[in-house]
Each structure stands twice: as C-alpha cells, then as structure tokens.
Design a protein that fits this description.
By secondary structure, this protein is α/β, with parallel strands linked by helices. Helix content is 44%, strand content 15%. The chain is globular.
Amino acid sequence: MLGELSVARRSPRCGDPCVGPQWGMEFRVLGNVDVLDDTGSVAVGKHLASLAGAHMKRVTMELGGHAPVIIADDANADIAAAALIGSKFRNCGQVCISPSRFYVHETVRDDFEQAFADYANSLVVGDGLDDSVTMGPMIRERAVLKSIDLIED
C-alpha cells in the first residue's frame, strides 16, 4: 500500500510532492489503496479528506504542524536529541512535520532535555547565505510573531 501511494505522490503528472487539485487525479488511480495517511497542513488535509470521502477511503491525519515524538525509557538521550534536532529546526521549524510535541519517558527526560538544549544552543542563527550560519531567517513576519507568542506563553 505505501509503495503505491509513494509512487503516486511522485507521479510526473503532478510533480513532487503532489498536492492540490492534481492529487485528485492521482488518488483515483489508487483504487486498491485502503487507507490514506497524511502529515501536513490543515488545508491539504481537508482536500485529501474530501477526496478520501468521495472514494470511501479510511484516513489518518496529523495536521497543523503538531507532529509528536515519543522517546521511550530505553532510548539513548544523546542519540535521540542529535537525530531530532535537525527535524525540529529544519527551515527554522517551519516544516509541516517538524516535531512540536515531545513525549519523553521520565527516566530519560533530564538527559534528553540537556542534550537537546545543548544541540539547540549550538545553532548559529543569522544570514542564511553565510557559511558559518546553521539556521537562517524565518519565512514571514507572521511566523516570527507566532514564535514570540509561544516563547511568552
């Protein structure tokens, strides 16, 4: 099932990734797919849900940039933090699958928090064209204001 969905999403008829009105044409090709799973924006989720409903497909979605991460009790906190720092801060965290919720087992919480904070503090914020910078500017003023609201909360 996932292989067929992946192939359809990369179809040259709609580009990569395939979203918007073109997805409907590709979705009809997937007649033998039972479930559609999507992590992304609310707008795309609504579109996919309407298509799934029209074709009686089950849907599971994680929408609106609230991708959860689970850190189990047997996790190596440093390895987990190193792996997740790129996902969290890719494109200044402005990616639909950027994790925003971390569920960390209490036995590794302190180690994970420290390792994640250490990695975050090592980021160099500035002009994205400067080779020494590891994180450039946010995409628009609205994103900056939302980040300030989150910090102040």
